[in-house]
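Example 394, ligand nicotinamide-adenine-dinucleotide.
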Amino acid sequence: MKLGIWLIGAYGNVATCTIAGVEAIKKGLAPKIGFVTELEEFKRLKLAPVENIEFSGHEIRRTDIAKSLDNFRRQNGVFSETLCANLKAKLKEISRRIKTGFLLNCGKAVEKLSSMNLPKNKLKLYDLVQNIQQEILDFKKRYKLDQVVVVNLASTEAKVTQPPEYSDIGLFRNAIKKNKKTGLSSSVIYAFSAIDAGFPYINFTSSPGSSIEAIDRLSIEKKVPHFGKDAKTGETLIKTALLPLFHARNLKLLSWEGHNILGNRDGYVLSFAESKKTKIEDKKKAVDVQETFSNVRIDYVPSLGDWKVAWDFIHFEGFLNTKMSLQFIWQGCDSILAAPLVVDLARLSAYANKKGEYGPLKHLACFFKTPYKVKQQNFFEQFKMLMDYVTNQR
Ligand SMILES: NC(=O)c1ccc[n+]([C@@H]2O[C@H](COP(=O)([O-])OP(=O)(O)OC[C@H]3O[C@@H](n4cnc5c(N)ncnc54)[C@H](O)[C@@H]3O)[C@@H](O)[C@H]2O)c1
């Protein structure tokens, strides 16, 4: 079973760590720590082996994965120069497969990232969709892949007011036919292209992607699975694991303040108010407790690179109105936390696709900050949904 993963944002930090990690595993240079799908319970699913994964994708910046990996190592002081040298030739080869992406209503921050000519920007929407679909199909054919899953790892788009096309697949199709670009953004066009051509789609980011009514409807019509949005890998993961504890002891939450600082490209994009808005909304949904005063801040601190620091202050009340607090500091290498989850999500959606499942893959809720059409935010309940799914497979 050969699995292709098509990454949108293929030279970004998460994509780079995902590709490098899988290629390192193929060469026996890294263990499989961090993959949820490598837990014993998942063995029975016989998922596509990590060793059988091939990559390609779209990008809007001119660089390559080998350079990106080397920059990441130098900036963040993780993994060795020898590992980068060992992977260099293979990463250069994968980079030659990457296709030029496009920008549509992504916001100023994302536009500033790209200095290259993006011919797809000028295409009519119908031709753009055909073009993207053909590129993914060519990848599937050329590398003799059994399945290809598209994963959105592109920068966070600016928040826009949702146009009527987002809630109606008829209107959405019409906009594509009539080249009506107003209100539509890159992430939804990539999602439409993937699902319309039969490729499962995962939205790792807080951009809309497939998490809108129109694309969800398309996924049902086309019998293709999809899910998102915004992977939870750090502060929000801890939040959704801690909340059940307060509930279990009947302690009353008074306020939850979270302050995140990070210095990578993602942090740079999030330093623009219009992009930050989307991310903060997703992060806030995790602590949706009535009467709790809750705030989330994200600040760009370039010297930190990928080492994101989150400081959370939780004020709560116990017996006899006694006020107490819990504080935690999380320091995680953001892209290293994210990379194995990209592989997990691709393997699980390929599996679901093969089994004939389609629409939103709700059992993947534990991977996301805003799981599409899932209200449950308790991490353990979400993880149980995944484990129940795994044990119920025949
Ligand atoms: N732990 C995590 O790192 C984590 C967790 C949750 C969500 N995310 C999200 O995942 C995404 C990737 O994070 P990252 O740290 O790799 O960011 P990054 O900035 O390093 O990578 C994003 C890449 O996307 C490219 N890009 C932007 N718009 C594009 C488009 N329209 N088409 C093709 N390529 C495009 C950029 O050039 C860049 O290389 C971000 O949206 C981030 O918010 C990351």
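Summary: The mean pLDDT is 95.
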